[in-house]
Design brief:
Structural class: alpha/beta
Distance between the termini: 23 Å
């Protein structure tokens, strides 16, 4: 029997990814990773109060401003900002949150898990996707 791979199952199932901290600069990792995911067929929703759009999509001030259902929140913010992002994701009943490489906040991750969210921390969604679907 094949061992289950929760990350594979997550990436197979989801369609809409809200990217908190997505930059409109092609030089930033958040932009490259999100462009890759967009090319793989995912809908990317930028969440960043400093930009009006990225990757051809309207940007929103916060998760709470996103008008559609979010399957995954992908976080490109420093760890001290993750608590508030988790709070918003819990309020919206988002099923999963992904903290990119070097985004480590154990307290927020535990809170998300207690609320029933699937949590990935300190991993790159592009690398994990490419390893499974590349």
């Amino acid at each position: 029997m094949k061992q289950s791979d929760p990350i594979y199952e997550l990436l197979w199932r989801i369609k809409t990814i809200a990217v908190v901290g997505l930059s409109d600069s092609p030089l930033r990792p958040s932009h490259g990773v999100s462009a890759y995911m967009q090319l793989q067929g995912y809908r990317i929703i930028p969440v960043n109060p400093r930009i009006s759009e990225a990757l051809g999509e309207t940007a929103y001030l916060s998760l709470l401003d996103v008008p559609e259902k979010i399957d995954l929140v992908n976080v490109f913010r420093r760890p001290e900002f993750v608590d508030e992002i988790v709070e918003q994701a819990i309020r919206l009943k988002v099923p999963a949150i992904w903290l990119q490489e070097d985004v480590i906040n154990d307290r927020a991750a535990e809170k998300a898990r207690k609320a029933g969210m699937f949590v990935v921390m300190d991993r790159c969604v592009l690398k994990e996707h490419r390893a499974r679907f590349g």
